[in-house]
Amino acid sequence: MGSADSKLNFRKAVIQLTTKTQPVEATDDAFWDQFWADTATSVQDVFALVPAAEIRAVREESPSNLATLCYKAVEKLVQGAESGCHSEKERQIVLNCSRLLTRVLPYIFEDPDWRGFFWSTVPGAGRGGQGEDDDENARPLAESLLLAIADLLFCPDFTVQSHRRSTVDSAEDIHSLDSCEYIWEAGVGFAHSPQPNYIHDMNRMELLKLLLTCFSEAMYLPPAPDSSSINPWVQFFCSTENRHALPLFTSLLNTVCAYDPVGYGIPYNHLLFSDYREPLVEEAAQVLIVTLDHDSATSASPTVDGTTTGTAMDDADPPGPENLFVNYLSRIHREEDFQFILKGIARLLSNPLLQTYLPNSTKKIQFHQELLVLFWKLCDFNKKFLFFVLKSSDVLDILVPILYFLNDARADQSRVGLMHIGVFILLLLSGERNFGVRLNKPYSVRVPMDIPVFTGTHADLLIVVFHKIITSGHQRLQPLFDCLLTIVVNVSPYLKSLSMVAANKLLHLLEAFSTTWFLFSAAQNHHLVFFLLEVFNNIIQYQFDGNSNLVYAIIRKRSVFHQLANLPTDPPAIHKALQWRRRPPEPLSRAGSQEGASMEGSRPAVPAEPGTLKTSLVATPGIDKLTEKSQVSEDGTLRSLESAPQQSSAEDSPATEEPSQAWREQRRLSSASASGQWSPTSEWILSWKSKLPLQTIMRLLQVLVPQVEKICIDKGLTDESEILRFLQHGTLVGLLPVPHPILIRKYQANSGTAMWFRTYMWGVIYLRNVDPPVWYDTDVKLFEIQRV
């Protein structure tokens, strides 16, 4: 891009800046112009020609020169925004300043002494923009920079198509221009799709990269437990001070959701044309999720009839302007808008799956993690969107890609974050009855996945993938087991007919989790058994008729239930069980799980390549903090149990007994691996053994086992089809205990997950921005960069 000459001049200017110990006057235009006026340097050039060590040296040794450089670069952007960038030269200056600031900003943020610099006022830069020297009126540099970027993103012939009919017309006045008429892409609230323009896309992308860099100050602050730290850059940019907030929000959302990487529907088309849209779409997705980083647990948005009222009632909000991007997102309500968003996200999430059965037919996109965060935000901030997603089987177009990613990433330590967000989304969806109902749709799309072949429904797919994660994922996924099983419990009352493969997987998990060594080796392991028993009870009580496969599997594995009922509690037995623990910990046994052959064309899940970079994540809250319990009443409505007094009878509800203070404490102190500090006692085992909800299953076995045995003896049967036929026509009406109320554990927003999302999102952005490597080798504090 840049000629050798201009690179040389630019490099000379950088060297002069680092070697000048005397402050250079801000008025010395001849000196400052060398950085942007006469050069054509690409962003890659700027990163190469301005080494980190030199930026730090200027910062330490001649701080006033660094300050002037930033101030002058912002001033040039402000001038470009004021004039409307009509000449090629002005546009070049704007891009050069934008690249330079993208390079320098992270080094301003990493030094606590400099952090306030952009929020200090510069004399003479009045809010009126006329440069009046009235200091009351002066704007902080950060505000001037953000407003200039916003203006430049709707600059005719630079970042948007001009609406002028001819060149004779006077240039559009950038101040009177209604940017809502210049939205970048058709979709939500805008019907017109402008002609694609490569140059405009590139210019938008560079400005968005600078905007993202401004927002990235958050990376240089350690994770705060209260998560209330508001990002001042995002707060200002998404406030009413930014007159382009609505069109920009709409442009970003529509650009992401309208993107079709297939290349206009023609397979293999991407091999002929380079796709310049993707970098813009990625940048748009990243900027969008950062502007939506808003802790919904602490903000004023009580839900009333599924609508967020936070937009109308801001009184309870922390002082300061409301985030307009969150506000707009929560107020989208037209069906066709929801359809456009859902279809777009589903199309992009499914893109890597297309790759597996039509290799290279489409361009493979890499920003699925940003899309998952965006989908999460949509569901979290806009309950009407969540209900729309669950209203039809379209939700399965989101479910299948998520299960694909979970299965594919299960052995890869560098993708723990992806595993978590996928599971969080499914936990959120599983709190709604419709999700369980939708899972009954037969699964016919054959995406090659490294799982046993089965014939069945989407519920079977979910159970088979979860079983695979639990039995053959890596150790760091153990904290997710509670979440995975909670999802299965939430959907279980609605599952009409499990396949034999899925039924066997559930019993295999019960078998693995109810061994004495596993139950006694950590304070919370027995909860997994409670969850599985709850699944079986829900299906037997509410969906007995179609579930002969599960009933048959329970009968075949009846010894597991008898062992649980007779769990030893005496000290010698505990001691003996724990002898197992002295061995090196191994993943759950796969014996008895009858792994069938994997699907054709699938590749096994593989660990990360040694040396892969990953970013650390904060711990996620335990399942008791992550969810709140609700009871489903006769008419299908939910009643929260959190405020109600806890039921006393364990038979009513084994689960309500769980999260005691002591248990939380135990959970903090012990994990399956670091179990050194904790030892089980007889009293402890008795305290929960008596609450195991085995009544329904024992009654089922008592009634059905003699009948099944009689058939086998009478007919000399070893063939299971005959037994299954008998079970299909059997009934337990009047023989089982009174059905228990259905308990749903719904995800609830909390500051712990808000902080987790912040670290995860910035970690993804850090790792994905490698060309140029915006934050690489700077002193980030929000997470650690680790090598696998």
Automatic annotation (TrEMBL):
Protein name as catalogued: Protein HID1 isoform X2
Region called Disordered, residue ranges: 297-316, 580-677
Gene that this sequence comes from: HID1
InterPro entries: Hid-1/Ecm30
Any one GO CC term of the record: Golgi medial cisterna
Top-level taxon of origin: Eukaryota
